[in-house]
């Protein structure tokens, strides 16, 4: 059975993503932090890790980028998950009873329009969405609710007071599947992720993009990240169409090395499908 | 007297940034959210707003980028503030007494190495650093502390149990000063901020950078942000050296408009100095 580590409590959106990607038979390993997921994959205690890299409303998950660089793991897949936030509470509460609503600050923000209509409820930040479901389960007499997934309601036997409470339904999270080694050689729609640190020369970013543009390689995404100990200097993370086995991609990366201090290849994987949560 | 709105409680790093930029005589207006800062500037109830745009370890503050686009305000200045996180508590507590430590999750993360050494203390997420100082002030008998600024200790009469507790001393936040209209025409080191949405054509990002590279205009920073309702399409925010009054910058932006669906100019301002907090 495939074993997959994700960050969060049971019912986290990362767990849902695991089940969509690997099927219901997957064995999941809930983990405290993103870094714990990387550690479990690195030391072989799980086969894969699944980690959010980007949300269509909020942008990139910086910590994931930093961990990709820090741990030498391979990206072997990706998927997009449409996020459906629900308001969950103990079975005996009605919407108007609720006095406290727990969730990750980003989830509270994503549902701000609906949550503002609940005048009596205080919003309380928590570490994650599924964890907030656990908190609302143990509400100690103060009628509490959580913003979390439909699956969290099932796992913790909570009632869904309201589904689809997010401000914007076009809310997708992109997840990466990470592994110790590559698992596939043939792709229908290959994508490749790399990162590089540019030499401090004029127009360096422009030149780095030209190595791809000159070879008709499509850059799907580029993201800059600060370099620790070098304030306001950046690493660039790029996703491109094509495989590391292709001649033109190899040539582009050779060309890039002429203007880079370092290049890291995270791997080639099949471009991801989109699922609903 | 100059009146400046910032997000957070008294003692927030944004307030410190206001005093560094405008001097101690400034009158400050604490605000609940970043958006409230923009609203106060827009409706004229303050002269300026000050907002964080980027941290040297954690990257860009996405919400600020989105609000810059949403409200038509002008960027009139910037500064960098070195962040010094302190552990604050009521005067009668010692370090080993502390049972709960409150702060913004990012501040807790920035001090994780030191905080791990306090085995008896539980880390509790809060909305902001200065607000967590307020919480620890009212600790109701549970020995509590907060990760916040040196100034927050002074304002709330708390004791600094330990200073400089951040993992990495090279921790800087860049702040922008926003106003309803431009206030300056002459610059020694002008910087200009713009954003643009590219047409969906091959190599569009490469072409957009070329309009600057071909005119020897240095791109200091480029950041992509998701476009709401267009999943995985992006707006690009760019900082460049030079003024909107310069011919070559005007030409570059005209050239950029040929490949963009829209361009917004946020203003020209003097490149910022760096201060210690």
Structure description:
The structure is a homodimer of 277-residue chains. With 277 residues, chain A is an alpha/beta fold. The first copy, chain A, has three domains: 3-83 and 171-183, Periplasmic binding protein-like II (D-Maltodextrin-Binding Protein, domain 2); 86-162, D-Maltodextrin-Binding Protein, domain 2; 190-274, 2-Layer Sandwich (Alpha-Beta Plaits). Chain A is built from nine helices and 16 strands. Chain A has helices at 13-22, 34-42, 62-70, 105-110, 112-116, 129-137, 150-156, 204-213, 247-257; strands at 3-7, 27-31, 48-55, 59-60, 74-82, 86-89, 100-103, 122-125, 144-148, 159-162, 172-179, 190-198, 219-227, 230-241, 260-270, 274-276. In chain A, the strands form three sheets. In chain A, strands 1, 2, 3, 4, 5, 11 and 16 form a seven-stranded mixed β-sheet that branches. A five-stranded mixed β-sheet of chain A has the order 8-7-9-6-10. In chain A, strands 13-14-12-15 form a four-stranded antiparallel β-sheet, with helices on both faces. In chain A, a hairpin with a 2-residue loop joins strand 13 (219-227) and strand 14 (230-241). In chain A, helix 8 (204-213) runs antiparallel to helix 9. The longest helix of chain A has 11 residues, at 247-257. The first copy, chain A, starts with a strand and ends with a strand. The mean pLDDT of chain A is 92. At the A-B interface, helix 8, strand 13 and strand 14 of A face helix 8, strand 13 and strand 14 of B.
């Amino acid at each position: 059975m495939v074993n997959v580590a994700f960050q969060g409590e049971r019912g986290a959106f990362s767990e849902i993503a695991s089940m969509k990607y690997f099927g219901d038979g997957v064995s999941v390993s809930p983990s405290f932090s993103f870094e714990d997921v990387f550690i479990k994959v690195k030391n072989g205690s799980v086969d894969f890790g699944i980690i959010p890299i980007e949300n269509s409303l909020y942008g990139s998950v910086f910590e994931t980028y930093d961990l990709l660089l820090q741990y030498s793991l391979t990206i072997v897949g990706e998927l997009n998950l449409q996020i459906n936030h629900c308001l969950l509470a103990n079975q005996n509460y009605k919407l108007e009873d609720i006095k406290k609503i727990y969730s990750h600050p980003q989830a509270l923000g994503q549902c701000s329009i609906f949550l503002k209509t609940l005048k009596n409820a205080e919003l309380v930040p928590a570490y994650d969405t599924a964890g907030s479901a656990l908190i609302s389960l143990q509400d100690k007499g103060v009628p509490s609710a959580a913003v979390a997934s439909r699956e969290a309601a099932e796992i913790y036997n909570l009632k869904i007071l309201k589904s689809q409470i997010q401000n914007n339904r076009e809310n997708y999270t992109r997840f990466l599947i990470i592994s110790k080694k590559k698992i596939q050689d043939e792709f229908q729609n290959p994508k490749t992720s790399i990162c590089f640190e540019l030499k401090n020369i004029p127009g360096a970013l422009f030149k780095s993009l030209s190595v791809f543009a000159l070879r008709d390689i499509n850059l799907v995404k580029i993201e800059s990240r600060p370099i620790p100990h070098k304030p306001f200097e950046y690493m660039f993370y790029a996703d491109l169409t094509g495989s590391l086995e292709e001649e033109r991609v190899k040539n582009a990366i050779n060309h890039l090395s002429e203007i880079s201090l370092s290049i890291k290849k995270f791997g080639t994987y099949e471009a991801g499908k989109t699922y609903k949560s």
